[in-house]
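Chapter summary example.
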Amino acid sequence: MRLLFVTLVLIGCLRDADASDAQEIRFCPADVARTYPLDSRARVQSLLLPHIAVINHADAPFTVNAIHLELIKGGQLLDTRHLNAADVQRLAGNSAEIEALAREASFMFCGTELIAPGIKLAGPVLHANEGLVVTNEVFAFNRERDTLRVRVEGTVAGKGAELSATLPVTSKISKTDWLFPVRGVSYVGWGASLHTAHRWVLPEAYALDIARLGGSGLTYRGEGTRFSDYYAYGTEIYAAAAGKVIESVSDVSEDATLLQRPNETTEAYFARVHENQAKLMESQNGPMGNHVIIDHGNHEYSLYAHMQPGSVRVRAGESVAAGALLGRLGSSGNSTEPHLHFQLCAGSSALQCNGMPVSFSNIRVLWAERDRALQSGDIVIAK
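The structure predicted for these 383 residues follows.
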């Protein structure tokens, strides 16, 4: 079985902090938290909270005793999660791992905006310029919420202290009329579902990895050792909406040795994948390979990644219509097999943007009783 893999990309922007505050709470991203439907008919939403940092700027130590995560609608508190002293201790135990990741891949934490230079991660006791990071907290709820409130209970010099900060929450999906970027029958290997890696990385939180299946149910024929073995390879890619091309790359080569070898274990294969990914991250365009980024206005940008070398038909500065041919599906960049990585972002950079949910007007989801949000593993029929 071949596994689809995506560019590990991320992130948004943070609000400026008031350095005069003794302690503060920061969010990453800091503009809004977006939900995604778990079930459209029942209006059940999922929310992966943004990264949250509690930072002490004062000389006096600040002890984090508890953290309260609260979801609000119309001023009414509807959902709560309490992280007690044991939970805080567990979070503190992740500090070294997060610090190492932030050094190696700072884009995973909003560059240096969440964990600024000079801030050391620690906890539960935070000395001057030390912080504690909360990650990977998930909520599921009916209908909508409009606010995330974070309250931190702590102790300074033996006295109780409390911090509080809020962030808007939205369940809105772009009102643009989006077209699925390939035609015919496709397989959405990775989408916004929580059991695939996209959702855990901000720019690609709602991204799609699009491939095709053959009669065997696999994405390739034979042993899958050549790009031409893959049913999706060479598929035409179309603009999902009208806009202006702001980035176009078409000269990145493909490497068939990166395909999974016959009888190679998943563990051995992904060890090779991760080694190659580390090399690609040293290059700005390496993870995306051949790609196109289109500005659709209203702070909405679409990315089409891993395209065939020499196939890209558009150039930066060109205006394109919805449905315009952009190029062909390939396996350049950080790709484990031929597929299209499509994402919608609120920023123009594939690596420094905030992912946005997207819906399409020209598709039918196989076995779906009605129109609904796409999930990982869906079979899509696009006109």
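To summarize the output: Residues 23-170 form a domain with the Immunoglobulin-like fold (CATH 2.60.40).
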